[in-house]
Amino acid sequence: MKIAIFADVHSNLLGLQAVLADIRQRGIDTIYCLGDLVGYGPRPNEVIDLLRQENIPTVMGNYDDAIGHMRFICGCDYKDEQAMKLGERSILWTKEHTSEENKAWLRQLPERLEFNAGGLKFLLVHGSPRQLNEYLFENTPEKVLNQFLTENHCDVLVCGHTHLPYHKQVAEGHVINVGSAGKPKHGNANVGYALLDVAEGNLTVEFIQVPYDFEQTAREIEEVGLPREFAQIIRTGKA
Questions:
Q1: Which of 35, 138, 161, 207 would bridge 127 by S-S if both were Cys, CB 3.0 to 4.6 A apart?
Q2: What percent of the chain has pLDDT over 90?
Q3: Given strand 166-170, what is the order of strands in its sheet?
Q4: Is residue 47 part of a domain?
């Protein structure tokens, strides 16, 4: 069974379209999204509309929660005061440019999805099983990752939020971060997702990078009045 999982689209419609086009031509059985559909980018409504149209099972991200519930902050971990001010501008702009219907749809998203495939139990979340906005980096202590796997009775924990892909096998199972399909931080402008191949208890993971017209997205960010810093991240894949 082949499963495609992506996350952190962040209102980048062109990035999402490129990822979905790549998935379709690979003959994937199932597709999941790990949230953060909105924020930072220029097309929140179009991204949500496409996910709804495609009927892709989606978990709630911290940004989806913030926009859906009209919160003042998104729960992001800002590195300094300037980054916090930019984040506040993103929240304000996105709340103003996301329809009430789509905010209501964001509010009803589940915080986790679970399924069984190939003899393995999967748990899908945005940040961690504990919090929407908790970062599970590749260097997160294995003790913590093992605890999440055992407490949640799963063999494979799949998350997003960090925008940095990795697959880590620990004593109690697998932890996978799928990277970002709209605001990559892996060092280049390509968007990405994870392709999981499951068979008889065995799991292989491939991280797919997909080129797209990132310059168009960067120009749209600037044209709608969002901070130019967001356009620079789109152009470079560095935050």
A1: 161
A2: 89
A3: 113-117, 120-124, 156-159, 173-177, 166-170
A4: yes
Q: What residue has token string 């086009």? A: 21
Any idea what DSSP says for residue 90? Answer: H
Q: Other C-beta atoms within 10 Å of 239: how many?
A: 14
Mean pLDDT of 184-193: 97
Cα(208)–Cα(150) distance, integer angstroms: 29
- pTM (2 d.p.): 0.96
Whether residue 211 is contained in a domain is answered as yes
pLDDT of residue 91: 93
- How many domains are contained in the chain? 1
Domain that holds residue 230: 2-112+177-236
pLDDT band for position 231 (50/70/90)?
very high
- The answer as to whether 149 is a domain residue is no
- Report the CATH number that the domain containing residue 85 is assigned in CATH: 3.60.21.10
Task: Give the C-alpha separation, 26 to 69, whole Å.
Answer: 36
Residue 177 DSSP SS3: strand
